[in-house]
Amino acid sequence: MEKVDNVENIDNAKKEKKPKLKSIFIIVLVVIPLLILTFRYFNNKSFKNKVNNLLGKLPGAVGEHFTLSSNDVDGEYKKNYLANYFSSLDNEAAADKLYIIKKEDEKLYAEIIRIMNSNSSSKTGEIITLVRNREQRKNLLSSIYDEIKMEEESMFFDEINRLENQDLLITINEITNRIEEDKEFKDNLTEIFSLMNEDKVADILYYLDEPKKDEILYSLSGNKKANVESKLLDKRTQYIKLGDLARLYEVKPAETAVEEIGSTENYKIDELGTIYRNLSVLKSAEILSKVDDDDFIQELFNAIRKQEELIGSEESIAAEISKSIQFMTEYNKKVDDLVLVYEKMSPNKVAKIVERMMENDNTVTQLEIFAEPVYEISDATIVVDVLSRMGKKTLSNVMNYVSTDKASTLTQMLVRP
Fold first, then answer.
1. Considering only CA atoms, which of 344, 362, 334, 359 is closest in space to residue 398?
2. If DSSP codes are grouped into helix, strand and coil, which group holds residue 362?
3. What tens digit of pLDDT does each residue of 266-300 get?
4. Cα 81 to Cα 112: distance, rounded to the nearest angstrom
5. Predicted confidence (pLDDT) per residue in 121-165, tens digit
6. Of 302, 319, 336, at which residue does a domain stop?
7. Rg of the chain over CA atoms, in angstroms?
């Protein structure tokens, strides 16, 4: 019985010995090599880099992790290499190269300096001083350059502002002259118009000579060019519209025209200037002779003259209109005076005067516009104008004494527009 127990104990001892041997085997063949490899991995950069490169080829997140680790190791290796290299150079050469690095990457510069400082703080300090001197010298140059450029830009924008805000005619004349005489101004012309207000650009180009206008317009960028072209088209369309209105007012009674274009109630003064420029001088004078507002007339003449100057007109319509107004005003006053005289006379005496005057078609006075007679006044014209302003009752009494033939002719003359 004891023998059996001993056998069982031996078997149990063997069974217990096997796991221990297995553990020892694992420790010797697996754990110890892993520990050695781990120690070498973290203490040998070259070995670590090779391991990371090898494991970086694994798929998925594991490979990506070791790829990043490999790059980190490689980056640290390069930084240490650069730090040692710069430390080996003379101070001036090292400062030149580190100054370039600092301009491009402040963080990399700081890390290289840190490594260099750990190797040689005194030499690194001298190099840092040289780098700072280079920065100060560069900053001074940049500062002076920037200051001059700012002054130039300020002067450039001041000139643009002046061109935008001064009188349009002065601006157009200045641009025209300086294109011919100032090469620098001509070279900057595209940039000037590119930065200028689009409405002002359109105003200037509208009155510039075609070659200069086209040269400036087609030098502008896409959107700017398109916007200015659109505004130029609007201005041309508006001019045509106002010209059409002038043709309508040419045939309207002066009394009606006065109500519509005898003030700035319906149109701006510049628009009225265009309308009156497209009316005949005689019609303009007829309308304005019935306007009592001298300030309005003067403002209108100024607008007309300004347009004449902008288009380079050699003849002054405003001057001719003014002369015609004076002629008509004086003539109308004399006719009104005659009306008062004739209304106090007996109808039969007035009738005799009328008959004699109707027989005289010879010109007694005339209005000349641009040295050409446009309005001739005869005795017949005067008598018709006098009778047309008489009261209906007085006119009727006079007509009773006028011969039938002359009464018929006089009636036709009185109903003419």
1. 344
2. coil
3. 999 999 999 999 999 889 999 998 898 999 999 99
4. 9
5. 888 888 888 888 877 765 555 666 666 767 766 777 888 888 889
6. 319
7. 52
Tokens read off for 127: 């190099």
| DSSP-derived secondary structure for 384-399 | HHHHHTS-HHHHHHHH
CA distance 274 to 238: 10
What DSSP character marks residue 401?
A: T
| Cβ count near 284 (within 10 Å) | 28
Q: 70 in a domain, yes or no?
A: no
Count of domains forming the chain: 4
Cα(171)–Cα(159) distance, integer angstroms? 11
- Look up the domain containing 197 and give its range: 166-236
Please provide the DSSP assignment of 288-322 as one string: HTT---HHHHHHHHHHHHHHHHHHT-SS-HHHHHH
The helix (run of H) or strand (run of E) holding residue 365 is strand 363-369
414: nearest Cα among 392, 401, 403: 392
- If one counts every other C-beta atom within 10 angstroms of the C-beta of residue 63, the result is 13
Residues sharing a CB contact under 8 Å with residue 358, sequence separation 6 or more, in sequence order = 379, 380, 383, 406, 409, 410
**Pick from 381, 398, 385: which is nearest to 343 by CA?**
398
406 and 349 belong to one structural domain: yes
The pLDDT of residue 70 is 47
Question: Measured between alpha carbons, how far is 275 from 269 in angstroms, rounded to an integer?
Answer: 10
Largest CA distance in the chain: 186
Measured CA to CA, the distance from residue 289 to residue 325 in angstroms comes to: 5
Question: Which residue(s) pair with 366 in the sheet?
Answer: 376
pLDDT digits (tens, 9 = 90+) for 367-404: 666 556 667 788 888 888 899 889 889 989 999 998 88
pLDDT exceeds cutoff 70 at 65: no
Same-domain check for residues 223 and 180? yes
Contact status, residue 367 vs residue 375, Cβ threshold 8 Å: yes
Is residue 69 situated within a structural domain? no
Q: What percent of the chain has pLDDT over 90?
A: 23
In this structure, are residues 337 and 388 in contact, taking their beta carbons and an 8 Å threshold?
Answer: no
Could you count the other beta carbons within 10 Å of the beta carbon of residue 105? Answer: 12
